[in-house]
Design goal:
The complex is a heterodimer of chains A (513) and B (535).
Chain A: H1 17-46, H2 49-70, H3 78-94, H4 96-106, H5 110-136, H6 142-195, H7 197-200, H8 204-223, H9 228-235, E1 239-245, E2 250-256, E3 259-264, E4 267-271, H10 275-289, E5 295-300, H11 305-310, E6 318-323, H12 326-334, H13 336-341, E7 351-355, H14 358-364, E8 370-376, H15 383-386, H16 391-398, E9 401-410, H17 418-430, E10 434-442, E11 446-454, H18 473-478, H19 500-510
Parallel strand pairs in A: 5-6, 5-8, 6-7, 8-9
Antiparallel strand pairs in A: 1-2, 2-3, 3-4, 9-11, 10-11
Chain B: H1 3-18, E1 31-32, H2 36-41, E2 54-61, H3 65-76, E3 82-86, E4 97-99, E5 104-106, E6 112-113, H4 120-128, E7 132-135, E8 141-143, E9 154-158, E10 161-164, H5 174-192, H6 213-216, H7 223-229, H8 235-249, H9 258-266, E11 279-280, H10 287-297, E12 301-303, E13 305-313, E14 316-323, E15 328-339, H11 343-349, H12 353-356, E16 365-375, E17 389-392, E18 399-402, E19 414-421, H13 427-435, H14 439-450, E20 461-474, H15 484-487, E21 496-498, H16 509-526
Parallel strand pairs in B: 1-20, 2-3, 2-15, 3-12, 9-17, 15-21
Antiparallel strand pairs in B: 4-5, 6-11, 7-8, 9-10, 13-14, 14-15, 16-19, 16-20, 17-18, 18-19
Helix pairs in contact in B: 3-10, 3-16, 7-9
Classes of the chains: A alpha/beta (513), B alpha/beta (535).
């Protein structure tokens, strides 16, 4: 500190030093918030929070070191540099959460963007304190300067680290938090034009710049509600651990309260807490009637959970899974939680995955006939899904089956969408199938229904594979009885040219949402 | 010239190359047929006779739906000795289709309302194609689900978003609704009409329609005048009816006979108060039906062959033709000719016809532009989803149909067929306007039309091909439909029999087929091989 002032001979202060110390507090809080945002966001999106947090913190701190070192290359106009720096941090840090979410959803280089963002924010934040200290070095004794700045820096960090989990995350979410603190950074910039006025010269243009940056961030805050993921954070009660916009749908995995959930376009597909009830009920009754089945077709079910149940039967030699979206299969193969849940079923040598629209595939692809077919599509809430529940679909399906084959169709809730449920059964019958519907309770869905069918007449299955978690022989037979409020009602047949099911389904479910 | 001057001038002459205009659109495409120079060549007249006239029983001139249907009928009756000549490279006329790596697609006509049980010839054709699945208890035909238009059938773009259906209900007033129902009550009344012989006022083909005076009287008015007379002024209703006239006839409310305007709706009713008949369609449109008819004609169909002159010589007909593929003149001595081309061509080709039948000049054909847009992917949308038929309100065009809709492909690349009739009152002027348009002008018309609904379309188009139809469809002008001289154009002229949809005054697949079958049955009778009629 060769050029610092000897102790005891200070000139009259020209700056409002005590107020500048307060800006240290604010800067420090902002800096830590950006670090926490990046850490939280990366562990949400990539999973494995220990690794994510330690790498983000490590990179962030070393970037701050880089910034501190770089500060020595700045010589003139430090006050002005400081205001510019605040605005830069405000923009880069403030928009960090929205940019990272977008990068995750729309690019393949999320990690590059993540660490690039962390380095940028860290470097800028690292520049702040050294520059501020040099601005103040003429005004305050060195020992007071170091003590004051560092004290407030660390207290600011404590502030932020308490505020973030207790108030900011639950109330604002990541996107709004990062934008709000960007705004705070910009406000510090604006405030500094007042505090450092004597060193700045004309401040009009600088203040205008501050105003523009603040307006940008404020606009970001105002539109944060329209931002897909910000909305999703409100819709999904739990934290998002995986999100991807595929060519066909939005795939989101969330985690919370000891289980995780898969959503497609915002509709729950399964919860790890009770999916075994659903998938056991989907798969095993048909096997109960065809215990030696060798060739199995699964339409939909890209999560691999139905495959897991099918592979429990040693007679199975080949499983063909036809799912529209390769991104679903990738997710089921690579996301550790899902992969663990489906027992890596998609990598079993007996399983062949085909990425195609199942109806187009049935129409155009010839192959050896199947002994069992499972039809496990999302509920018919669009025309593109509704076609997969038409008489034409069931006719095309029958062409790919042996005469003894059994078909099981997931057919929505007989309680919440009674007409839709029985419409599916009636449609299957109109295609020449014999149908026996059944149902069970899946807590995260409600009462759920299936339709078991075959080209020939058959009896209700009374035996299932031993050792399942939910189904027993007795429970299986019991699923085929319908209480009065879910019992059969007359409905139209869902054909390609009327698609009545889409209308029925949306009308019925509207009552429950 | 000094060396420096030479270099400077060389640099200057290279300048236009360097500044060559950037293409207006980032995608390729071309103008495809029909063969205008070849077709118009016949108007020059004066063709020398070929070296010899090959003897033949029946020669069918024209390989559109009428000509192919005549061949289909003759082949089934066991006539071996006939040929079908088609001027274009591909048969089918305005039911032609194309195909690329994405999908087959129509080049014009793209659907068929399901026939009623009385339309025997169409039922027979659909049965042969595997589309007729049987009959219900009432005796009405049942059709294959995959050939019936898949829902959602139609949507309309208005107020910045898509809505279900073709009639825009959003924003309709109570008076709009009242008039809408009043019009369809009127249609129901006509659908229920039966004359003294039990014939309906409106039926397809129109040869089954009643000629009762009260029905014929509708022909004296334009559709616009008929609506005015009933106080039907709702802009929404009139838009819908004008759209129907443009779609089926290439004309407007004020240039369409009220008889034809009501025929469009009443002939398609299953019964009074019931819905309109469902539509049958295929990815390649009516090209699906053409494929079947051409298979029936087999080797007897010759494309790229244009009849240039037909004259009567004793009991025979001498037909001169130009084989454009082999670039040679050829000729036939036929016992009978079925002329299955339009009357404007017949006038030039058939000796003595123009003088004998001046009424043929009363037929006017509207020109059309049809574009096929091959898309890499579908535009992202958030309102009512992509339907089979997608119509933009406030557009001079008719919108587009989606070729992959019926093949069940809801994702990825697709082909859109965009239609634009030229509906100005003077067909000749409209034709000249269309003929003057190069590919850029056509592409500009298509993209400008679709941009309001699909601002991001340009980046999704892989190619855009355009067909300019000079004579796409006959206009049912007021007074034409029941004009005796016009109706007499269907009668034989010596040994020449006529088959073409324009002889019905409306351009429909069923009409073309009916005329083809009728002409073939006239010829069968003349050849002494009458059988039971298919009609």
């Amino acid at each position: 500190m060769a050029n610092s002032i000897p102790e005891g001979s200070l000139p009259a202060p020209t700056l409002k030093a005590p107020l500048l110390f307060i800006s240290v507090l604010l800067i420090a809080s902002c800096g830590l918030i950006y670090e926490l945002v990046a850490g939280t966001l990366s562990s949400y999106l990539l999973g494995d929070s220990v690794t994510q947090f330690s790498t983000v913190i490590g990179v962030y701190l070393s970037a701050m070191g880089l910034g501190s070192w770089l500060s020595k290359f700045l010589h003139r106009g430090l006050a002005r540099r400081f205001v510019d720096l605040e605005l830069a941090v405000a923009l880069v840090g403030g928009f960090s959460a929205p940019i990272l979410f977008q990068a995750f959803a729309h690019t393949h280089a999320f990690r590059v963007v993540l660490y690039g963002e962390v380095v940028a924010v860290g470097t800028l934040v690292g520049l702040e304190i050294p520059i501020l200290m040099r601005i103040l070095q003429d005004q305050v004794r060195f020992k007071d300067l170091v003590a004051g700045v560092l004290t407030l820096d660390y207290i600011g960090a404590l502030f932020a680290s308490l505020l973030f989990p207790l108030l900011l995350m639950p109330k604002l979410g990541l996107v709004r938090t990062s934008l709000l603190f960007g705004l705070l950074n910009a406000a510090v910039g604006l405030w500094s034009t007042h505090l450092l006025k004597s060193q700045l010269g004309p401040v009009r243009m600088i203040r205008l710049r501050c105003a523009v940056v603040m307006a940008l961030l404020a606009a970001g805050l105002a539109f944060a509600g329209k931002f897909t993921l910000a909305v999703e954070e409100e819709i999904f009660a739990d934290e998002i651990v995986y999100a991807k916009d595929s060519a066909y749908q939005r795939i989101v995995l969330t985690r919370g309260r000891g289980s995780f959930q898969l959503f497609l376009n915002g509709n729950l597909q399964f919860s790890s807490a009770d999916e075994y009830r659903y998938h056991e009920a989907l798969v095993h009754p048909a096997f109960g009637l065809r215990p030696g089945a060798k060739r199995v077709l699964i339409c939909g079910g890209g999560d691999g959970l139905a495959v897991r149940e099918v592979l429990k039967h040693p007679s199975v030699q080949e499983v063909v899974l036809v799912d529209l979206d390769p991104a679903m299969n990738d997710m089921a193969r690579t996301q550790p939680m899902v992969r663990q849940l489906n027992g890596a079923a998609l990598e079993d040598p007996r399983v062949k995955v085909v990425n195609a629209d199942a109806m187009v595939w049935l129409q155009e692809t010839a192959c050896a006939p199947f002994d069992l077919a499972y039809v496990d599509f999302p509920d018919p809430n669009t025309y593109a899904l509704g076609k997969l529940y038409t008489s034409r679909f069931y006719r095309l399906l029958q062409r790919r089956l042996t005469d003894e084959a059994m078909i099981t169709v997931q057919s929505t809730s007989p309680l919440m969408a009674r007409q839709s449920f029985w419409c599916i059964a009636a449609t299957m019958e109109s295609s020449g199938l014999k149908v026996r519907p059944y149902h069970l309770a899946v807590p995260s869905f409600g009462v759920w229904g299936f339709a078991l069918a075959s080209k020939r007449d058959f009896d209700v299955p009374t035996r299932v594979l031993p050792g399942l978690r939910h189904l027993s022989n007795e429970a299986t037979a019991a699923m085929f009885a319908f209480p009065k409020d879910m019992d059969r009602i007359p409905t139209e047949v869902n054909r390609l040219d009327n698609q009545v099911l889409v209308h029925l389904y949306t009308r019925e479910w509207r009552r429950w949402s | 010239m000094k060396r420096r001057d030479f270099l400077a001038s060389a640099a200057l002459s290279a300048l236009p190359l360097a500044c060559r205009r950037r293409p207006e659109f980032p995608f390729p495409g071309e103008l495809v047929g029909p063969d205008l120079p070849l077709g118009h060549w016949v108007r020059g007249g004066a063709f020398a006779d070929p070296a010899r006239f090959e003897p033949i029983s029946v020669l069918v001139v024209g390989g559109g739906v009428a000509g192919l249907s005549a061949g289909w009928r003759l082949a089934d009756a066991g006539v071996e000795d006939f040929q079908v000549l088609e001027l274009e490279r591909e048969p089918g006329g305005t039911s032609r289709s194309g195909r690329n790596h994405v999908s087959p697609f129509p080049w014009a006509a793209h659907y068929l309302p399901v026939p009623d049980r009385g339309n025997h010839a169409v039922l027979r054709l659909l049965d042969e194609c595997g589309v007729l699945e049987g009959f219900n208890a009432k005796g009405d035909p049942l059709f294959a689900e995959e050939a019936t238009v898949r829902a959602p059938e139609e949507r309309i773009f208005a107020y910045g978003q898509w809505w279900e259906g073709l009639y825009l209900r959003a924003g309709a007033t109570a008076e709009d609704e009242r008039q809408y129902h009043a019009f369809f009550a009127e249609v129901d009344r006509w659908a229920a009409f039966r004359d003294a012989k039990g014939r309906p006022a409106f039926s397809i083909p129109r040869s089954r329609c009643s000629d009762a005076p009260e029905a014929r009287a509708l022909d004296s008015l334009s559709m616009a005048a008929w609506l005015d007379g009933r106080g039907l002024t709702s802009p929404r209703l009139r838009w819908l009816l004008d759209y129907a006239c443009r779609d089926d006839y290439g004309s407007r409310l004020d240039t369409t006979s009220a008889w034809a305007g009501l025929f469009y709706f009443a002939a398609r009713k299953q019964g009074p108060g019931e819905d309109s008949r469902p539509l049958l369609t295929w990815p390649q449109g009516n090209g699906f039906l053409v494929d079947h008819l051409r298979r029936a004609c087999g080797q007897r169909l010759h494309c790229g062959v244009m009849a240039t002159a037909i004259r009567q010589e004793g009991d025979d007909l001498l037909v001169t033709a130009w084989d454009n593929l082999q670039q040679r003149r050829c000729g036939w001595r036929a016992k009978r000719v079925i002329f299955a081309g339009p009357q404007h061509a017949a006038r030039h080709i058939i000796e003595g016809l123009e003088a004998a039948r001046p009424a043929s000049a009363r037929i006017h054909n509207a020109p059309w532009m049809v574009a096929n847009l091959t898309l890499r992917a579908r535009p992202k949308e958030s309102s009512f989803p992509l339907a089979w038929d997608n119509v933009l309100r406030g557009s001079e065009a008719l919108g587009y149909v989606v070729a992959t809709h019926q093949s069940l492909r809801d994702h990825g690349p697709t082909v859109w067929t965009w239609y634009r009739p030229f509906t100005g009152p003077d067909c000749e002027a409209e034709r000249a306007r269309l003929r003057a348009m190069d590919w850029e002008a056509c592409a500009r018309m298509v993209m400008n039309d679709l941009r309001p609904a699909h601002p991001d379309l340009e980046s999704l188009v892989a190619r855009l091909d355009v067909m300019r139809w000079g004579h796409a469809m006959v206009r049912p002008a007021p007074g034409l439909m029941w004009d005796p001289a016009f109706l007499a154009l269907s009668r034989p002229f010596g040994g020449i029999h006529f088959a073409h949809t324009e002889l019905s005054g409306v351009a429909l697949f069923e009409e073309a087929q009916d005329h083809g079958v009728r002409a073939a049955e006239e010829v069968l009778s003349a050849l002494g091989r009458p059988g039971s009629s298919w009609r």
